[in-house]
Design a protein that fits this description.
39% of the residues lie in helices and 16% in strands. By secondary structure, the protein is α/β, with parallel strands linked by helices. Helix 1 runs parallel beside helix 5. Bound molecules: N-(furan-2-ylmethyl)adenosine 5'-(dihydrogen phosphate). N-(furan-2-ylmethyl)adenosine 5'-(dihydrogen phosphate) binds next to helix 2 and helix 3.
Length: 136
């Protein structure tokens, strides 16, 4: 299975450690195409000198090849919202995770969208259980 993990980059990197913990769990199910999203050491100044267009086009290619999208949507991110919209358009399975203690009111365009599974959680242990249940 190919998993596209989405998490905030320019929207704010406060949750990068959590992203890596989720990615580490997702690896048990297959290949995570976007491991860099959880890489703390990567600075957002154009990974390997890639332009914004190159990043967009490469990520879209990966997204289209993925069987599943898992998005951590606690930190509002234009890029993550865009990726979710594109994944919906292409009928991908989408699981969105968010922490209500940080974001009590998730965007209605995510919380109210059809064909997206949205789950609140607080700890990595909760997230792991939700993912396991979703993929069972
Ligand atoms: C720096 C650190 C990690 O990656 C970089 C270089 N920039 C990007 N590289 C790869 N994917 C990116 C990059 N910027 C945004 N994205 C994609 O958009 C990721 O798949 C994220 O899920 C999402 C984040 O969007 P913003 O709007 O928060 O940046």
């Amino acid at each position: 299975m190919k998993v596209y993990f989405a998490g905030s980059i320019r929207g704010g990197r406060e949750d990068v450690d959590l992203y890596m913990q989720i990615i580490t769990h997702l690896r048990k199910y297959g290949t995570v195409l976007t491991e860099h999203v959880g890489d703390k050491s990567l600075e957002d100044k154009g990974e390997k000198g890639l332009s914004d267009k190159q990043i967009h086009d490469r990520d879209m290619e990966w997204l289209l090849s993925a069987n599943l999208m898992v998005a951590e949507v606690t930190r509002p991110s234009l890029g993550v919202g865009y990726e979710i919209g594109r994944a919906l358009e292409h009928k991908k399975r989408i699981l969105c995770l968010y922490r209500p203690s940080v974001t009590p009111r998730l965007s209605a365009m995510i919380a109210g969208a059809p064909n997206i599974t949205v789950k609140p959680y607080e700890t990595i242990d909760d997230a792991v259980k939700i993912i396991d249940e979703y993929l069972k």
